[in-house]
Design brief:
single chain; 2 domains; 6-stranded parallel beta sheet; alpha/beta; TIM Barrel
Length: 320
């Protein structure tokens, strides 16, 4: 798996995960390190961290992943990332995303960081419940968007269990909407506070169900991205389709209604008044008809367009 993630040569050397701090600003119910927002003793200093990185670089370890706790709680993270990059290593961080401010993200970009993995436990209610802090979801999404805007490769990481696996389809919709390039899914680690959730771990059948969903949605999103069909493009295509159909319907209606109106006026005039009614063309009526039809056509076109964005990619493709 490391060769798929980090390059073809990494299977020859270890990818190292350094839990550089135990401290964290959130209160996750499944935290494997039982972290809290307090200082912890016996953590490596900046100089000790650099010695560790130098040793890893000497042994040609290709990737170092800075984790925690929350690595962004350490003010020296950018310095250590840059130190690793300068020694030929790829630097990656695993974060809850809430501290990815514009200032921090800009600083990380200058260090040459390769990737930012952001933990996401579900949609808003689910995520905030797992993270123990109201508003954590919004802060995390804001952090992801900031990384994307600054050109840093970013992805989401989700620990699956019975309390959140039903959110996975919605997570894929979010990945499509935000154009997030990568997602990783993990099983629960029976450690720290996570050891209290053993009974919430997925059964074999549930795991199979989740894997099938992940494989199907990954394939679908991959197909659309390969042809450049983002949700915005799909939406615009459906709107354009609705407008074209509306305009075509107008002209088709006019072509049919013109002779039919003449025939009808003569027929009913003779039938009821014994006088053939004279048919007259009204420019105002035509403009009103045209404008009304275009407006309704635009409104109607937004319904399938919105549906194309909200439903799965498979359904959108089936519509085409």
């Amino acid at each position: 798996m490391d060769s798929l993630r980090y390059g073809s040569e990494t299977h020859k050397r270890p990818v190292v995960v350094w839990n550089m701090t135990r401290r964290c600003n959130l209160k996750c119910i499944h935290c494997y390190s039982n972290s809290r927002d307090i200082p912890y003793k016996n953590e490596l200093t900046t100089d000790e961290g650099k010695k560790l990185i130098s040793d890893l670089a000497y042994f040609r370890s290709p990737v170092i992943l800075f984790s925690g706790g929350e690595p962004l709680m350490r003010g020296d993270l950018p310095e250590l990332v840059e130190f690793a990059v300068d020694r030929g290593m790829r630097a990656v961080i695993s974060t809850n995303g809430t501290l990815l401010t514009r200032e921090i993200v800009t600083l990380l970009k200058k260090t040459g960081i390769s990737y930012v993995g952001v933990s996401l436990d579900g949609m808003e209610k689910t995520h905030d419940r797992f993270r123990g802090v109201e508003g954590a979801f919004d802060m995390t999404i804001k952090g992801i968007r900031t990384c994307l805007e600054e050109g840093i490769k970013v992805g989401v990481r989700l620990t699956m269990n019975r309390k959140n696996f039903s959110d996975i389809p919605a997570i894929f919709n979010l990945i499509e909407k935000e154009n997030i390039p990568r997602a990783c899914f993990y099983h629960l680690v029976y450690s720290g506070r996570g050891s209290k959730l053993i009974e919430e771990d997925l059964s074999h059948g549930e795991s199979r169900q989740v894997i099938d969903c992940i494989m199907e949605r990954t394939r679908e999103i991959g197909v659309l991205r390969a042809i450049g069909a983002t949700p915005k493009i799909i939406y615009n295509l459906f709107v354009a389709e609705g407008m074209i159909v509306s305009v075509f319907s107008i002209f088709l209606g006019l072509l049919l209604s013109w002779p039919l109106s003449i025939v009808a006026s003569k027929f009913f005039g003779n039938l009821m008044l014994e006088v053939a009614l004279r048919f007259s063309f009204s420019k105002i009526g035509f403009v009103i008809t045209l404008t009304t039809t275009l407006i309704f056509g635009w409104i109607a076109s937004r319904i399938p367009a919105q549906k194309a964005v909200s439903v799965s990619t498979r359904e959108a493709l089936a519509y085409e």
